[in-house]
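Support request, please re-run this one:
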Amino acid sequence: MQSTAFTHSITAIASAAVASTFLFGSSAQAQNADHLKALLENRTCQRCELRGIEAKGANLRESFLDVADLRKSSLSGVILAFSTMYYADFRGSDLSNSDLRNTYLINGDLIQANLSGTNARNSRWKYADLTSANLQNANLIDIELVYAKLNGANLTNASLRNASLYGADLTGANLRGADLYRADLTNANITNVDLTQANLCRATMPDGKMSMQGCTQF
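Re-run finished. Output below.
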């Protein structure tokens, strides 16, 4: 059962979307009120145009997003756990401190998105574009980032224990203080990657060798 507060939140957000017609003129189509209602009430969004929406803390657990445009949206603290997303566009969006556990994301666009403090544990993000994204302090334990683009991403102090980064492009990424215990970096590009103070204990490096960096010596 949805809480009264969340119901009020839906009404407020939908009203704001309608009001945007007066603020943005012809560009108001980017915030389609019907699409927003479908997302918030039915947790289904197929080819939705919702650029720039504000849905902080919204409960969208087990949502289905298919080719959804959510660029530059304010979604901090949003709950999207157990959601399935195909070609979702979150470029420049604020997803900080959000619940993205067990999400299935295919070809997601998260360029320059703020994912700091996000919990995306046990998720499957295949071919995700996280170029210049902020993943500082994110929980990425057991995540699958196969062939992901993480060029210039900030992964400072992120937990990537047992993560699969097979074939990922980490060029210029900041992994200072990150926990990569038993992570799989096979065939990953780690050119100019800052691994200062990173825990690489038993991680499989791009050349297939196991690292002992950070392992506690007994």
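Residues 1-30 have pLDDT under 50 and may be disordered. DSSP finds two helices and five strands in the chain.
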